[in-house]
Amino acid sequence: MIAPFTPDLLTRDFLTALLQQQAHQAQRWAGHGGHWQWLGEGALQWEPADLAHRHADLVLSCGIHGDETAPVEVCNHLIRDLAAGHLSCRARVLFLFGNPEALRQHRRYLDDDLNRMFDGRHQQHPGSREATRAAQLERWLSAFFMAAPAAAHAVPRLHYDLHTAIRGSRFGRFALYPYRADLQWNEQQMAWLQRCGVDAVLLNEKPAGTFSYFSSSRFGADAFTLELGKVRRFGENDLSRFSGMDQGLRTLLAAPADSTTTPLPRRFRVAGEIVRQSEAGFQLHIPDDVENFTAFPRGTVLATDGDYRYVVGHDEECIVFPNPKVKPGLRAGLLVVEIKP
Questions:
Q1: Distance of alpha carbon 109 from alpha carbon 212, whole angstroms
Q2: Would you tell me the crossing angle of helices 243-254 and 70-83 to the nearest 10 degrees?
Q3: Backbone phi, then psi, for 7, in 5-degree steps?
Q4: CA within 20 to 30 Å of 12's CA: 80, 107, 124, 330, which one?
C-alpha cells in the first residue's frame, strides 16, 4: 500500500516521497509566508502571500532526463528549505520534476528523449510514455503562466530547465538560450547566469523541441536549458560543484536579479548539426571521451552515414552534445562557433 503524503514531508524530503510514489492527500496548504499547491506527480507550486508585489513568475524544472540527478537534488533542497522557513521567497514558483519514472530507474528516458517532445512534438509519438509526460508538463507550465494573478508592476516570466551532461565539457557550466523570433537576447539574464558560474551561452537560431523553447516561444519567458555538470547517480553528486547556481537561485527567490549586464559569459552560435540518417551506417568520427566544446579545424570529417558527410566548414567549429546512440532522424551533435566581442 502506498504511504500517504502530508505537507510536513516537504520539510524532510520531497524527493524521497516522489521516488517512492507516495500518495498525496493535500491539494493546497499554508507555508511560511505563502501557500503550497500540489498539482500532480512531480509538480509543486509556491505562491507568496503578497502576490501583488511578487518579483517573478519562475519555473524551475529538473529531471527531464532520468539520469541527471544533481539538479533534482538541488531543487529538492530548495523545496525543503522553503517549506521549513529557512528560505525567503517573494516569487511565484512552479517546481517540475520532469520524468519521475525514469528517475526511479536511473534511465535517461523510457521510450523517447523527453527534451525532444515539447512544443507539440509529442503528438508525433503516440504510445510513447515521454509523449504523455511532455503533454502534461506543457499543461502545467501553460496554466502557471496563463493563470498568473494581477500584480502592481510588470512581472517577468522565467524558466530555468536544469540538466547535467553525459560528457565532460571545456566549460564546467553552460546554457542554451532558445531561439527567439524577436532576436532580442536578454543580456541582464546572461550576466546573471555568469554570476552563477555559467561560463558560456549557446544562442540557438531555430525552433526546437526542448522544454525551454516551449516556454520561450509560447509565453515569452526568458528561458534557458542549463547544463551544470556531469551525469551521476543519486548519492554520487558533489553538490558543492553546484553551489554557484544554488546560491544564485536562492538569492533570486528572495529578490529580483541584479540589473547589471556585465560581465557576459562567452557566447556561441550554432554553425551546423550532425543528424543520424540510418541505424547501421552511421559513424561519428570522434573519440568517446571528447568533451563538449572541443574544437575541430576546417575540413575535419566528423560524421558519415552512407552518402552523408559532416565536414567542418568554418576555420574552427566546437562540438556540443555528441551522441552516436541517438535514433535515426535525430541530432547526433551540434557544431558551434564563438561570437567574438
A1: 18
A2: 40
A3: -55, -35
A4: 107
Find out whether 35 and 149 touch, Cβ atoms under 8 Å: no
Known binding residue 106? Answer is no
Task: Rounding to the nearest 10 degrees, give the CA dihedral for residues 266, 267, 273, 279.
Answer: 50
* Predicted pLDDT of residue 28: 83
Question: Is 138 labelled as part of a ligand binding site?
Answer: no
What secondary structure, in 3-state letters, does 43-91 show?
EEEEEECCHHHCCCEEEEEECCCCCECHHHHHHHHHHHHHHCCCCCCCC
Active site residue 227: yes
- Write out pLDDT tens, residues 55-67: 999 999 999 999 9
What is the 8-class DSSP label of residue 121? G
Cis peptide, bond prior to residue 263, ω within 30 of zero: yes
As a whole number of angstroms, the distance between CA 259 and CA 52 comes to 21
Could you tell me if 88 and 254 are in contact, meaning their C-beta atoms sit under 8 angstroms apart? yes
121: containing domain: 4-254
- The one catalytic residue in 73, 130, 227, 317 is 227
Sign of the dihedral through C-alpha 313, 317, 323, 324: positive
What confidence category does residue 4 fall into, taking pLDDT thresholds of 50, 70 and 90? low
User: Is there a domain that residue 259 lies in?
Assistant: no
Whether 53 has a binding-site annotation, put simply, is: no
- Angle, CA of 304, 310 and 313, to the nearest 5°: 155
Distance CA 94, CA 241 (A): 24
Strand order in the sheet with 282-284: 282-284, 301-305, 308-311
59, β-bridge pairs: 94, 159
Burial of 102 (0-12, 13-18, 19+ CB in 10 A): buried
CATH number, residue 311 = 2.40.50.630
Domain identity same for 287 and 236: no
Please say whether the beta carbons of 265 and 193 come within 8 A.
yes
Per-residue pLDDT tens over the stretch 92-124: 999 999 999 999 999 999 999 999 999 999 999
d(CA 117, CA 201): 22
What residue type is 70 in one-letter code?
A
Q: How many Cα atoms occupy the beta-carbon half-sphere of 25 within 13 Å?
A: 8
Place of cell 559513424: 283
